[in-house]
Amino acid sequence: MSLETLGGLPGAIAKPAYDPARVATGVVHFGPGAFHRAHQASYFDSVLAEDPRWGIAAVSLRSGGTVEALAAQDGLYTLAVLDREPSMRVIGAHRTWIGPGGGAQVAALLANPQVRIVTSTVTEKGYCLAGDGTLDMSHPDIVADLQGGEPRSFVGWLVQGLAARRAAGAAPFMVLCCDNLSGNGGKLRAATIALAAQRDPDLAKWIAGTAAFPDTMVDSITPASDDALYAKVAAELGVEDRATVQREAFTQWVIGPYTLADGPDLAGAGATLTSDVGGYERAKLRILNGLHSSLAYLGLAMGLETVADAMGEPALAAFAERLALQDIVPVLDPVAGLDHAAYTQAVLTRFRNPAIRHLLSQIAWDGSQKLPYRLLDTTAAAIRSGRPVDRLAVPVAAWMHFVARRAAAGEKITDPLAGQLADAAAGTSPDQLAGRLLAFESVFRPEIAGHAGFRAAVAGAVRALAEGRVGALLAR
Predict the structure, then answer these.
(1) What pLDDT was estimated at residue 69?
(2) Which of 39, 61, 64, 27 is nearest to 156 (CA)?
(3) CB contact at 8 A, 466 and 401
(4) Rounded-to-integer distance, Cα 251 and Cα 218, Å
């Protein structure tokens, strides 16, 4: 794959609707892994068809594999869309790529007023935040940044770049965090200001008063690239592509309010601009992620392997739909521009996609950390509003059954509380199991654990699962 071979690709392969030679760099992205290249880059690629100012500089200062692959292919790669009707599209949005040792080039780009946006997918740990969401001043990278020299942290690079802008009398760049942190823009803004304040209080005030850090939410299932994908793409294109990525057809980028004069038309490329990113986050957590966990624990109890397998079981699929529409959606606050019922149907359609192999066993990991946000927030809202909780108790009981089965078999439980959960589940009857796990205060808040109706519903569902009566539970 290269600019030289681009014109000779088969007609069925969508190609950039612009001349890559005319593209300017307007975006610097830190962390150009598969999700960024399959997600944000595809939005900017669409924007470039009408506005060539928004090419991307891909920055990966700690590992060189991705940027080396981009460099070898003139920044081009294939996005394979996995659906019932799969498609392939060449993305050409990356016109600059910087790997280890390229710090001086990054500094120059961040200082350049032509660069208007900085985006990031550096994973949650890449923001150097403490448990309370504030900047961890004891983090080794932050300690190093406070000592001066080339930044080691992403936040350090933001502070250095914004300091250069201020010194030159230029406008700040806008920062779009694209990792799954609740309130991600606000947390990154606070972290950047906190680090800047250690360097120059006036710089911190300038950032606070001028720089935009809107909250965002991103969503699209992006399986890892593997040899099978490389072979498939090579067969379709007739050329090798070692930077190819794949994702489902569905993609979502929700962005909160910001001001960026003459910025890119991301809404025209499919992004959602809203004043309530939190509402979209809650819908994703409670509907999509809540159903994911429900399908995982119930599907595993039925001997199933993938999400698509689970949705292929009519009783389980129907249960998931009722759970969403009759229990989850009614206790969600309205969100302007978001139809929760329509979103639910879109989620269920995504789950049925046979081209996405999403393992239930993987979704089942870390249940003690996930359930409070995915299912128990909904349960608490239902209790407060006097709504029934019998159906909500079923996936919670299925998690308990999952823990007990793993413990009894001596199999690994992937969870921060693995040892405590295994000890609590060892040698218990179904009734004892429910009581012991409901006593985990870090998982079940008092209003849930102490609710008689919910406790009874969970205990009954645990018994049914232990006796193999899954069908009765799915009929709820």
Answers:
(1) 96
(2) 61
(3) yes
(4) 8
Name which of 231, 155, 238, 230 is nearest 196 in CA terms: 155
Residue 208 · residue 194 · CB < 8 Å: no
The model's pLDDT over 395-452, given as tens digits with 9 standing for 90+, comes to 999 999 999 999 999 999 999 999 999 999 988 888 899 999 999 999 999 999 999 9
Bridge partners for 80 per DSSP: 88, 246
Beta sheet of 216-219, edge-to-edge order? 216-219, 252-255, 272-273
Could you write out the three-class secondary structure of the chain?
Answer: CCHHHHCCCCCCCECCCCCHHHCCEEEEEECCCHHHHHCHHHHHHHHHCCCCCCEEEEECCCCCHHHHHHHHCCCCEEEEEECCCCEEEEECCEEEEECCCCHHHHHHHHHCCCCCEEEECCCHHHHCECCCCCECCCCHHHHHHHCCCCCCCHHHHHHHHHHHHHHHCCCCCEEEECCCCCCHHHHHHHHHHHHHHHHCHHHHHHHHHHCCCCCEEEECCCCCCCHHHHHHHHHHHCCCCCCCEEEECCCEEEECCCCCCCCCCCCCCCCEECCCHHHHHHHHHHHHHHHHHHHHHHHHHCCCCEHHHHHCCHHHHHHHHHHHHHHHHHHCCCECCECHHHHHHHHHHHHCCCCCCCEHHHHCCCHHHHHHHHHHHHHHHHHHCCCCCHHHHHHHHHHHHHHHHHHHHCCCCCCCCHHHHHHHHCCCCHHHHHHHHHCCCCCCCHHHHCCHHHHHHHHHHHHHHHCCCHHHHHCC
**Amino acid identity for residue 171 in this structure:** A
pLDDT digits (tens, 9 = 90+) for 85-104: 899 999 999 999 999 999 99
Distance in angstroms (rounded) separating the CA atoms of residues 321 and 318: 5
Segments of the chain with pLDDT less than 70: none
- Measured from the Cβ of residue 306, the count of other Cβ atoms closer than 10 Å reads 21
How far is it, in rounded angstroms, from Cα 121 to Cα 179? Answer: 5
* Rounded-to-integer distance, Cα 258 and Cα 256, Å: 7
Query: d(Cα 455, Cα 445) in Å, to the nearest integer?
Result: 13
Q: What is the pLDDT of residue 431?
A: 82
Retrieve residue 22's tokens. 């005319």
